């Protein structure tokens, strides 16, 4: 699970994509052939509002299908985005480029073998199952307003696999770090991991991540995965310290002009 992506690792990509869809579910999911069309009216997250082609050979009627999707996205007030993983047809990507589309963000998908990790024998932070408390903590850590709170609650409540909400709170200053761990069979996903700006580089992130991974391992997960924007060097440095390695990357595309 830790090797860099190779063309014959498409089954690994399919599996990680499948668990990521379950870990962060969109409000509306429809399929056009093997293209997954994900939309969430209440939340602007790119992962929740994009087309994800899932078969390298499925590129028939591309222009027509893209236009159909564009109208569907417009009905939600969303711009049309395509998420290119190694499962996306090369012919489709060439078509996007020829039509003036451009990639604008790259995300690395990282994995680690949990059995090989040195983790604390005990959990410094026990997982909570209080959705509302976790959302409040996440918004406080990120410095966001409460506007998207109902949409986030809907997303978190829709997660089917067992989940643990990890939070570190300062009695004086409130929440300072959060992480969501979703345990899906032998895989565990780390999502919504954040540390308050003023408390970074002080070991808090290491504490929360260690507890989440320890919980995942004792719950039966053998590998963990996460997704991180490729330019986030601080987060990447922390994940490398834990042994996470890149499995593959994906790119978001949008049409310019």
TrEMBL record:
- Keywords linked to the UniProt accession: Acyltransferase, Transferase
Q: Which domain of life is it from?
A: Bacteria
Which EC numbers does the record give? 2.3.1.-
GO MF:
acyltransferase activity
> Residue limits of the N-acetyltransferase domain?
121-257
PROSITE patterns, alphabetized:
GNAT (PS51186)
Q: Which InterPro entries match?
A: Acyl_CoA_acyltransferase, GNAT_dom, Rv0428c-like_C, YpeA/RimI_acetyltransf
Q: Does the keyword Acyltransferase apply?
A: yes
The answer, when asked if Transit peptide is one of the entry's keywords, is no
- UniProt protein name: GNAT family N-acetyltransferase
């Amino acid at each position: 699970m830790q090797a860099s992506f190779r063309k014959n690792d498409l089954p690994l990509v399919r599996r990680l994509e499948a668990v990521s869809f379950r870990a962060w579910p969109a409000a509306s999911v429809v399929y056009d052939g093997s293209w997954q069309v994900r939309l969430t009216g209440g939340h602007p997250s790119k992962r929740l509002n994009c087309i994800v082609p899932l078969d390298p050979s499925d590129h028939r009627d591309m222009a027509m299908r893209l236009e159909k999707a564009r109208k569907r996205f417009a009905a939600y007030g969303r711009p049309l985005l395509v998420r290119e993983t190694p499962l996306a047809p090369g012919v489709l990507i060439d078509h996007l480029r020829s039509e003036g589309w451009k990639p604008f963000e790259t995300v690395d998908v990282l994995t680690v073998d949990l059995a090989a990790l040195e983790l604390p024998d005990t959990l410094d932070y026990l997982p909570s199952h209080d959705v509302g408390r976790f959302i409040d903590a996440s918004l406080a850590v990120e410095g966001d307003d409460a506007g998207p709170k109902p949409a986030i609650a809907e997303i978190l409540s829709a997660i089917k696999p067992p989940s643990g909400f990890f939070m570190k709170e300062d009695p004086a200053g409130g929440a300072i770090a959060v992480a969501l761990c979703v345990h899906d069979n032998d895989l565990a996903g780390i999502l919504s991991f954040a540390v308050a700006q003023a408390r970074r580089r002080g070991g808090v992130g290491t504490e929360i991540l260690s507890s989440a991974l320890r919980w995942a391992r004792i719950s039966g997960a053998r590998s963990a995965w996460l997704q991180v924007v490729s330019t986030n060097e601080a987060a990447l440095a922390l994940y490398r310290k834990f042994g996470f390695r890149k499995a593959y990357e994906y790119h978001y595309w949008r049409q310019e002009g």
